[in-house]
Structure formats: C-alpha cells, structure tokens
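> tool_call: predict_assembly(chains=two)
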Amino acid sequence: MDFDDIDKLIKERQENLQESRFQLGYGIILVFTVLLVSILLWEDYYIYSISLSAGMVIGIILRYSRLCFASAFREPYVTGNTSVMRAVILGLIVSTIGFGIIQLRHNPILGDYDKIPGIVMPVGLNVIIGGFIFGIGMVIAGGCVTGLLMRIGEGHSIFLLVIIGFLLGNSIPTGNMEGKVIYFPDYLDLEVVIIIQVIFLLILYRLALVYEKKKDN
Amino acid sequence: MAVRKLDCLTELCPIPLLKAIQEFKTMDIGDILVIEADHSCVCTDVKKWAREKEYEVKSIEIGPGEWEIYIKKTR
C-alpha cells in the first residue's frame, strides 16, 4: 500500500497527541459580541460600527487565506510561483476601480489632497528608503502588517512586542512627510487614469504568467 | 522507505521551504520528509510548493501553534 504511507504516519502521530481544545464556541461568542456592539454603536457612531464588523470579516479572511504580501514578492525568486503575486495584482485592479468610482463621485478640488478618499501622499526618495527598511523589518519580525495582526489573533504572544515597534514606526514618520504629491487626475481625466492603470496592471499580470512559465522549464 | 525529520521550529518563511528543498535533493524516491514548524504560513508555503511539484503532502496541527507537514518524494 504505497500511497497511504503518510496517512499511516499521521495516524500514529495523532494517537500520541492530546485532544486539542475545541475553540469554535469562543469564536461564536466573539462574533455575536462584535455584532451586538456594532448594533449598539450604530445610532451614534456608525463609522465605528462598520469598521468593527468589516474588520472582523477581513480578519477571518486573512486568517484562512493566509494571504502574505511578503510571499507575493518572494515566491517568484524562491520557487518561481507567482500565484500570490497575481492575487495581489488582481486586488490592486479591484481597488483601482473601486477607489476610482468613489473618487469620481467625490469631484476633487485640485491641490486639496487631504479631502480625497483614499491615501494621497507625497512621493519621493522617502518611499524607496522606507520600503527598504520596512522590508528588512518585516523579515526580522516574521510578518507584515496583516500577518502580524492575524497572528496576534491566533495567540502568538511575540507579536505583541512587534506591534509596539510597528505602531511607533508607523505613526512618527508619517507626520513628517515632505515631497511632491503626484496625483494623476491633476494631469488627466480620472476615467482615463483608471483605464490606463488597469491596462498596466493587466500587463503586469500577463508578465507574471510568462515569468512563471519560463521558470518552470 | 525512510522517514526524515526536519526541525524548523522558530524559523520563519522562507527558511523552512529552502531547507526542505535542500533536504529533498538528498532523499530517495519513496522517502518521507516531516517538517516541524511553528510559523503558520509555513504550511501554506510548503504545501503550495509540494503540490506544484506533484509530491504527496499533508499537514496536521500537533499542538497549539505547532504543525507537522508530511511530504513524500514520489518522483
């Protein structure tokens, strides 16, 4: 019986294990608590209530999908697999279209970037340097932002230390950003910008597929 | 059929996968590699690689926050 060697090993292993505690009950209680708090907050602070419920749903999705942004950029080098990278590109396409629609309705005033929905920030050398530092920190700490939050929820206590560093590092420099804001709709129509960006992302998607095929052979 | 254990406790991605790939090079067909890991993403990472290479792969949670991944070198 060649094919169930692994099953046999797992079965032997599981016999020596203690029964794992079943935690579904806690989960259900937590979901209901969040829903209750959301309903209570709805009248006065509906933004908090939406954030709380949406945050819970996103957390569950992150936990089960184990989407990892670090692996999106690492896997192509390590194994030649670009599936996570393509997932990130698809996500960017969705958010481009979504934010595009929101910003179209917003009718932005030129130069007043704080009032545009989404994050419009100055770009420059700071982005490159910051990205480099973030990348190193991410590898040492063992996870990017989403992975970090997800693991705190899973109960890895070491990430409680990581989040202190993350909060400090994230809140201090962002207040002091200087540089030129490049907001494409200042130069072109927003509709054109969205279409160009989606086409660009589709090209990237295609390139990722070509790269994967090439790496396979 | 030999069973090999690979201790990857406290190792983060992508070290366990790289270690597994190296270990696999020295294994014979039919051997099984057991990776012990305590980083949850290792399961996803290693499984994806193994499925792509069409190796038989399974994982179990042996305790809170500890996993064992079984991979068989089928070819």
